[in-house]
Amino acid sequence: MILKLRFFFLSILLVFSTIVFSYFIVQRYHSRIPILKQMVMESAKKGDSDKVISPYNGLKPEVNNPTGVYYKDRVLVLMYHDLDPEPKDRGTLSVAHFEKQLELMRDNNFHWISMSEYIAFILHSSPIPDNAVLLTFDDGYASFYTYAYPLLQKYQAPATNFLIVNAIDNPEYKGIPKVTWEQVELMHRNGIEFFSHTYDSHKYAEMDSSGTAKTALLAAPIYLKDKQRQETEEEYKQRITNDLKQANEILQQKLGTKNNVLAFPFGGFSEQLLDICDQLGIEVTLTVKMGLNKPGHTNGFRLNTGGMDNDPVMQLSLMKHAKEQLGSIQFSTDTGTRHYYTIKSFLALMVVAVLWLWSGSRLLTARKRMRSKNLFG
């Protein structure tokens, strides 16, 4: 009776261990198995379409507090794109709102730090002021020079701009006008830092022949129309390596500084991309997921503070409560954690499987003895 109970219990544990191990395998390797990749993508699309997230939920306007301490040993990285006195696109922030943001941050004891200080903090836990804020701009729009740069000088606020390198001084590049190299070099001499937003990978591309699924160019293998197939993993790695390397070489040539920071276009990244960044000496990367950054957090969070919907007063309230609102946010696809739990679940499964086989063999032996006893007893 005891053998039967033990075998039954181990059978249930074996099923449970198999399910847990399978879960971590799917999480870690779904991108390499076409059918799993498609299932995960469809699930993600459905989940995203059902969510409407406002970062201001539960907050209300607050009075200025020039001595307040809202968080320590953390950095809130703010993300901007285009500026205009009268925005016509939802992704464009009004110049007046941008100045109001700077004014409110100054009057409420927030302290702007440079990207150099941020890198030292993330990589080496170097000290930073309380309520530290890093201002970042994506895409290298001409409006950064026209509108943002004068205000940054006025408020003595350091900032970083991530350039789509191939778009600078390129008359064939389509879209919103970009800064020139002359403007970049002038601003760089006056304290503005510039890093890579890729050479020419700020785009989406199709992932298969149907054309329905698209990905950010850096984030995954794309569909090769001329070859009627998807990129191999090696082709994907080589493509993004070439792009990032070319961007950094040009920035090094133009500005003479080490380019060890990358902002992922659209926030999209993969395990392979993070590995390539390590190989190229890109020590710090930034996404578009909101959160609060701490030492060792080399793939960083950013809070989107641009766009027509921005409310500077409510944004200030969110910044004051960043520790409670954003401090616990993590990436659900943390590579190191997934790898750790995949190994642990595999070892647990092996132990349970061995015990299950041992218990099963003992149960079979006991049954054979019982049959022999009944036959000859």
Explain the layout of strands and helices:
Layout: H1 2-29, H2 34-50, E1 75-80, E2 82-84, E3 92-94, H3 95-107, E4 111-112, H4 115-124, E5 132-138, H5 142-154, E6 160-163, H6 181-189, E7 193-196, E8 204-206, E9 214-216, E10 223-224, E11 229-230, H7 233-255, E12 261-263, H8 271-279, E13 284-286, E14 299-300, E15 303-304, H9 312-320, H10 322-326, H11 335-376
Parallel strand pairs: 1-5, 1-15, 2-3, 4-5, 5-6, 6-7, 12-13, 13-14
Antiparallel strand pairs: 8-9, 10-11
General description of the model:
By secondary structure, this protein is of the alpha/beta class. The protein has two domains: 2-44 and 337-376; 60-320, Alpha-Beta Barrel (TIM Barrel). 47% of the residues lie in helices and 13% in strands. It contains eleven helices and 15 strands. The protein has helices spanning 2-29, 34-50, 95-107, 115-124, 142-154, 181-189, 233-255, 271-279, 312-320, 322-326, 335-376; strands spanning 75-80, 82-84, 92-94, 111-112, 132-138, 160-163, 193-196, 204-206, 214-216, 223-224, 229-230, 261-263, 284-286, 299-300, 303-304. Strands 1, 4, 5, 6, 7 and 15 form a six-stranded parallel β-sheet that branches. A three-stranded parallel β-sheet has the order 12-13-14, with helices on one face. Strands 2-3 form a two-stranded parallel ribbon. A hairpin with a 4-residue loop joins strand 10 and strand 11. It is elongated, with a radius of gyration of 27 Å.
